UniProtKB/TrEMBL annotation:
Keywords: Cytoplasm. It is found in: Cytoplasm. HAMAP family: Gluconeogen_factor. This is Gluconeogenesis factor. Gene3D superfamilies: CofD-like domains (3.40.50.10680). Pfam families: CofD. It comes from Desmospora profundinema. Belongs to the gluconeogenesis factor family. The lineage of its organism: Bacteria, Bacillati, Bacillota, Bacilli, Bacillales. SUPFAM superfamilies: CofD-like. Its main location: cytoplasm. Required for morphogenesis under gluconeogenic growth conditions. It comes from the Bacteria.
C-alpha cells in the first residue's frame, strides 16, 4: 500500500483511462506530482507491430501499453530510445518495435499478459500501475451512418465515413479485477486525452467498466482533445465528444470536463486543415447545460504537433483530486 503523504494526508489516487500518444504525454507530467497513478489502457489496436504480434502470438496488442510504460518509467534517455526503437530492416523484424517485442517475450516467459506488464513495470521502475482494460482478446467494430460496418481499430479512421457507434467483439469482455479495484478506490478518474472512438471508448465498452466508473465516489474528469481527428470526429465540438461517450455508455458518467480554449496560430491551424483537422470548439454553455463542471484554460504546446501542456494539465488534475478528497474528508 502506498503510504506517501501530501500536506499531512495520503496522496490522491488517480486512475487514467485511455490510450494513444496523448495519454502518454499527459502521464509524463502527472508522474512528476505527488499522486498514486493507475493507468488502464486499451487493448483494441490491430495495426502495425502490435497487430502482427497479436496475430502471430495470440497476445493482446502491446503498443499502447508500451507507450504508457515508457511514459511512467524512471529510465535513462537511451533506454527509452531503445524501447521505442522500430526496426527498419530485417526479415520478420522490419516494422516491429523493440518495446513490443520485450512485452511479447515477457508474456512468453510468464504465460500471462497482465503478469508480463507487472514484470516489465518492475524492470523499468515504473511510477504507478499499468493495467490492460481487459485480459481478453477484443476486436473493435464501427457502424457508420450509412449502415456499413468496419472491422478493426486501424481501419475505422480510414473508412472516410461518419461513425454512428462502435462496439467490441466479444461484447461480454470483462475488466481485470485490479482495474475495478483501482476505480473503486480512486479520488479522480481521468478519461483521455486520446482518439474518442478508437482509444477511449474501447475501454469504457468493456462490460462493467463504465458501471464501475459511475459507481465510484471519485471525481470523473474528461480531457477533451485539442483538435478533431479525421475519420473519427470531423466537425466535433467539445459537447459532441461528451455526447458520444454518453450515447455509448449512458448519462451521468462525466462530471468535470477540461477544455483547451487557446486558439493556435493561423499557420498551425492551416497545417492541420491540410490534414482535415480543425480545433475542437469549446462550447462551454452546452456542456454546463448538460450538468458538467467545465475547466477551460490555455492548454496547448506546439513542437512538431499540437499537444496538451502536460505540466499545466497535470496540475489541474491534481487540484481537482485534492479538492475532491478534501470535500469527502470534511463531509
Amino acid at each position: 500500500m502506498n503510504k506517501r503523504k501530501i500536506n499531512g494526508g495520503p496522496i490522491p489516487r488517480i486512475v487514467v483511462i485511455g490510450g494513444g500518444t496523448g495519454l502518454a504525454v499527459m502521464l509524463r507530467g502527472l508522474k512528476q506530482l505527488p499522486v498514486s497513478i493507475t493507468a488502464i489502457v486499451t487493448v483494441a489496436d490491430d495495426g502495425g507491430s502490435s497487430g502482427r504480434l497479436r496475430s502471430d502470438m495470440g497476445m493482446p496488442p502491446p503498443g499502447d501499453i508500451r507507450n504508457v510504460l515508457v511514459a511512467l518509467a524512471d529510465t535513462e534517455p537511451m533506454l527509452e530510445k531503445v524501447l521505442q526503437y522500430r526496426f527498419r530492416n530485417g526479415n520478420g523484424l522490419a516494422g516491429h518495435n523493440l518495446g513490443n517485442l520485450f512485452l511479447a517475450a515477457m508474456q512468453d516467459i510468464t504465460g500471462d499478459f497482465t503478469h508480463a506488464i507487472r514484470e516489465m513495470s518492475r524492470v523499468l521502475a515504473v511510477r504507478g500501475q499499468v493495467l490492460p482494460a481487459t485480459g481478453q482478446e477484443v476486436t473493435l467494430h464501427a457502424v457508420m451512418t450509412d449502415g456499413s460496418c468496419v472491422k478493426g481499430e486501424s481501419q475505422i479512421p480510414l473508412a472516410g465515413k461518419q461513425i454512428r457507434r462502435v462496439f467490441l467483439e466479444p461484447e461480454d469482455a470483462r475488466p481485470i479485477p485490479e482495474a475495478l479495484e483501482a476505480i473503486e478506490a480512486a479520488d479522480a478518474i481521468v478519461i483521455g486525452p486520446g482518439s474518442l472512438y478508437t482509444s477511449i471508448l474501447p475501454n469504457l465498452l468493456v462490460r462493467g467498466m463504465a458501471e464501475a466508473v459511475r459507481a465510484s465516489r471519485g471525481r470523473t474528469i474528461y480531457i477533451c482533445n485539442v483538435m478533431t481527428q479525421p475519420g473519427e470526429t470531423d466537425g466535433y465540438t467539445a459537447f459532441d465528444h461528451l455526447d458520444a461517450i454518453h450515447r455509448h455508455v449512458g448519462d451521468c458518467l462525466i462530471d468535470t470536463i477540461i477544455l483547451n480554449k487557446e486558439t493556435p496560430p493561423a499557420a498551425i491551424l492551416q497545417q492541420y486543415a491540410e490534414e482535415g483537422a480543425t480545433m475542437v470548439q469549446p462550447d462551454i454553455k452546452r456542456l454546463q447545460a448538460a450538468g458538467c463542471h467545465v475547466w477551460a484554460d490555455n492548454l496547448i504546446q506546439y513542437r512538431t504537433v499540437l499537444r496538451h501542456d502536460a505540466e499545466r494539465l497535470s496540475r489541474m488534475i491534481l487540484q481537482l483530486a485534492q479538492e475532491y478528497r478534501a470535500g469527502r474528508n470534511s463531509g
